[in-house]
Amino acid sequence: MNQLIVYCHPNPKSFCSAIKQRVSETYSSLGDLVVVRDLYAIGFDPVLKPADFEALQQGHVLEDVKMEQDHIRWCDVMTFIYPIWWTGLPAMVKGYIDRVLSYGFAYAIDENHNISQLLRGKKAIILNTMGTPKEFYDQSGMTKSLQMTTDTGIFEFCGVQVLAHTFFGAVPHVGNDVRLAMLEDAARLVRKATGR
């Protein structure tokens, strides 16, 4: 199975980074091919510019966007690993989605307003860390809102099947034993979600 990990966190010593490492190792141990796209490390430009639109109108794709789209074409499963900041996606991840999951690649709309989901057959797993306790987000309805925005509004809109979306809460405030258990949970989750 071809695994694409899209990872976003500015701190290479973050817990998100530990999750990325554990998930990558888990996929590799299952015999999968793994490509990690660390958005900060590769210097991905998240800003949607006029040049993006001009290229699309001319039937072209900018080279940095094409490279990411080629990774998505190659993979069977996309695993997104990033923190929740201010109850949403970090700007870098949002910019990746804005630029890479573009019209004509991820979706299309015809003259009768029918939507074509161009990424049908692709699957996604989303792993998020939070500083806030997960119970707080569950009780306030924020967990459901985040899932609706990301799972339904982004991935399912493009035809991507979301296999799992989980949240690791209160990460800076729990002990190391709890974080180690979270890493084991992440490994179990990706194995189960991919049927292994």
Characteristic terms for this protein:
single chain; 196 residues; alpha/beta; Rossmann fold; 5-stranded parallel β-sheet; two-stranded antiparallel sheet; 20% strand; globular
Quick summary:
The chain has 196 residues and is an alpha/beta fold. Helices cover 43% and strands 20% of the residues.
Structure characterization notes:
The chain is α/β, with parallel strands linked by helices. The chain has a single domain (2-193), classed as Flavodoxin domain (Rossmann fold). Helix content is 43%, strand content 20%. A 5-stranded parallel β-sheet has the order 2-1-3-6-7, sandwiched between helices. It has a two-stranded antiparallel ribbon with strand order 4-5. Helix 1 packs parallel to helix 7. The protein starts with a strand and ends with a helix.
